[in-house]
Design goal:
The complex is a heterodimer.
Chain A: E1 2-4, E2 8-10, H1 16-31, H2 38-41, E3 48-56, E4 59-69, E5 72-80, E6 84-89, E7 95-100, E8 112-119, E9 124-132, E10 140-145, E11 151-156, E12 161-166, E13 178-181, E14 197-202, E15 209-213, E16 218-225, E17 228-236, E18 243-248, E19 254-259, E20 264-270, E21 275-283, E22 288-294, E23 299-305, E24 311-318, E25 325-333, E26 338-343, E27 347-352, E28 356-362, E29 365-366, E30 372-375, E31 380-386
Antiparallel strand pairs in A: 1-21, 2-21, 3-4, 3-31, 4-5, 6-7, 7-8, 8-9, 10-11, 11-12, 12-13, 14-15, 15-16, 16-17, 18-19, 19-20, 20-21, 22-23, 23-24, 24-25, 26-27, 27-28, 28-29, 28-30
Chain B: E1 3-6, H1 12-15, E2 33-36, H2 40-52, E3 57-60, E4 77-80, E5 87-89, E6 96-98, H3 104-115, H4 129-134, H5 142-145, E7 154-160, E8 166-172, H6 177-183, E9 193-199, E10 208-217, H7 223-238, E11 249-255, E12 262-269, H8 280-287, E13 295-296, E14 307-308, H9 309-315, E15 329-332, H10 333-339, E16 348-356, H11 362-372, E17 382-388, H12 398-401, E18 411-419, H13 425-439, E19 454-455, E20 458-459, H14 476-481, H15 486-497
Parallel strand pairs in B: 2-4, 3-4
Antiparallel strand pairs in B: 1-2, 5-6, 6-9, 7-8, 7-9, 10-12, 10-13, 10-15, 11-12, 11-17, 13-14, 16-18, 17-18, 19-20
Helix pairs in contact in B: 7-11
The chains are: A mainly beta, B alpha+beta.
Chain lengths: ~400, ~500
Amino acid sequence: MESRDQSGVCFAPCSRRGFLARLGWASAAFLLPGAAFAASAAGVDEDCIFCLGSFGHADTGTLHVVARRMGRWERLNSTATERPLALAAHPFLPVVYVANGVTTYRHEPRGTVEAFQVDRKKGRLELLSKRPLSLSATEPRSLTVAPDGQNLLVAAFAGGAYNVLPIDASGVPLAPSTILKQVGRGSHTAEQAAAHPAAVLFHPRAGWAMGADFGADRLDFLSLQDPGFVVSHRLQCEPGSGLSAVALDREGSLAVAMQQLRPALRSFRISDGGTVIALRSAALDAAPMAIEFDRERNVVYCATRGDSRRSLVQAWRIESTTGEFEKFAEVPIPAADIRAIYVDRNSLALATERGLMTAALRKGIAVPKSVSLAIPIPGASSFVSVSTKA
Amino acid sequence: MSITVTRKDPRFDALKSGHNLRFPASESEAPDRIVYCSSAEETAEALRRVVGAGLRPTVRSGGHCYENFVSSNPHGAIIDLSLHNSVMRDGHSGAYCVAPGAVLGDVYLSLYKRYNLTLPAGSCFMVGAGGHISGGGYGLLSRLNGLTCDWLTAVDILTVDAGGKVTPRRVSAHHDADLFRACCGAGGGNFGIITSFRFDQLPTAPREVANISLFFPWKDMSEERFAGLLMAFGDYWEHRGMDADTWGLFSLLEITPQRVGHLGLHVQFCKPDGTAEDLTVLTEFLDRFAEFEPMLMPTRRSMSAATNVAAAHRQDPMRNHANFKPGVRLRPWISVTVGDGGSGEPTRAKYKSAYMKRNFTLAEAHEFYRFYTSDDRGVQDSVVSIDSYGGAMNRSELVAKTAVAQRSSIMKLQWQCYWRDEAEDAIHLDAMDRLFTAVYTGSHVDAEHQGTPWGDRYEGCYMNYADCDMLRYSYWPELFYGRAGLYPFLQQVKRRYDPNNIFHSSMSIREA
């Protein structure tokens, strides 16, 4: 079932400063070393380093370094962290950021962010810093690093706030420089009594980011203006939809949002001029848990809930101009919870409650027989690729 | 039109802090702006702008918040109500209306001069009504007349709904009764911005009061004698102080370090009819301390700094007054209340509190004595004020009508420490924490609540003497709001009226 929505919003900052800032961002991204986009370019089956977070039961929170070497996965190292709900990698430093979905820090209502340096040769992790978010910015669930590596944007779900933390030259996040407390609600009285920023994602080239607010059913667009980031525009979405994740294509011109409460995928066109238009939606049979864009193929992989022992990974092709969805594959996964998806040219990696599961991809379709538990790490919750070149 | 003071404004440095100079702890912790509002309408507009910009609003009236709830607001905005300070009567309803920015001294003077009324509020006349009344403020007349919030009949408050809309409300026992109750003791920085306190009735101001200040030299103070003094004080409030004829008696025993030279006892008395013609109750109270050989405070030039009671009696021109006790002064209540009620200069400070339902134990006395006779650098600038409590404040029917859970206490302790040098912060904060923890550690405290004033003998802490050290105890909400269901009730009110948690601090009401 599809629907079309013509509502649109322009989010491009109009000030001279904003314009220059965007130019600066784009230039910085262009000038980055080749590894800047390692996450999306890591398609070949060579040595790749990843980080995986886990928590649950006896595990109060662990960050693992895992590697894929000649098609085989192995865990290299682990270190304690605290409820790692989301991970993000620095674009050109071997640093991984952890969003700890906690509600207190030193007895105050704050979530936290940790930064770990990854020794790619030995697979070791070194804690660079642990940084509290702003007061009441609790349970961060998503974080994203600006393409120039200078800012870390965090969505604090329970606290209903965005925090922007500047990142210093060595990759260490500093105290929040922007705190944006959100208001809003949705039509689902139990789940949407307040704003709940659930996901954030920086545009791959420009200086803005988008946020999905689960509680208020809207997309927020954050851009840098004097003296810091602001929510420059918002796009209201279907009431009661419960946006919980977003993904962008390679160019950053097509976005897909995941609706959790009214299970669906929704596409958006983002023009160079800074206009966002809602395009199409595709209903899902069950509540989605995670999405990821395959930026090579314009395919979105979406994990949906199945029964107590099984879930599904669906492959949706998106028509790049109309945003129309077409489901072309569906593969059962022997795990109940899929919390993160990573995709490259040859395979899918899934963070599940059983551990890291993988599946080979053939023409964008996961091969059922290839689905396997690559590394048994109970409670795997988040996953990210770490730059492999300095 | 509200006035906005930003970081670039030359006034910002002088205005960014309240009375406790520990906050903001650094430049980066300071707010981006301070918005001064002089009316409810201006306040609503300021709040709209602040919320619309995604900033955190904190609210300041007199600036006497003891912790970092207001001035530490990185990138946020302080909405300062000190210019919204009227004390007037509503010509239509007849209600007495106190704006949040009015300081207690002005409240006393206005209510007294205009209506011969008063509010049983605190003794520091520069404290703002906003935080004081909404937090259940009390003072020297509270044993006689109850807490300030006990007299509230309505509150005008701005709340922010789920969609971010600022809504002005007049809440009372008949309209938004849940929010009204919450504002009667737990209204500080939790639910919205109070723009007016409304009272249909207020107590008549006393005509005169008798007061006296005594001190007990440390040089004569063995541990046994010290414990005896504390227990003599506590025994009065545990027993005789329960009788209604004593409710006009307020006393404060100050425990100070040995280097100060003495312990202080300050007393104010008036009869329930607002006169002090019969001082029998006061005399009886003072007689309890005769065995500790009190000295008089040097209140007049004719007295030396250390004048014994007999000598003072010979000098006192009012010595023939019926039931007069040497050193007692009879003065108009308004003179005492406004004349003696300064707040001192802003300084660095730390505070703690404890409600006591029973007299002191030897173990508590021992710890006070041990710390205050030691050369522990950290406690040398501190004082523990032991206030008499109870009386009209302990009317049990008020538990369900207000958000003040502590209605069984006989004394309320306020730990205070003052210093100027930022480099000494850690020394003083550590010492206060050690002293407090030591006093509430031992067999006199439940095993599960060691280190805190909680259990059979205690009734927890007072949110207007906020103390972030208590956050380390998972049951800290119980300490401040009891365990009879008040905190869950406040969480419901929070969900209903501030669903996005716009008004928050490190000790604000948290999600269930």
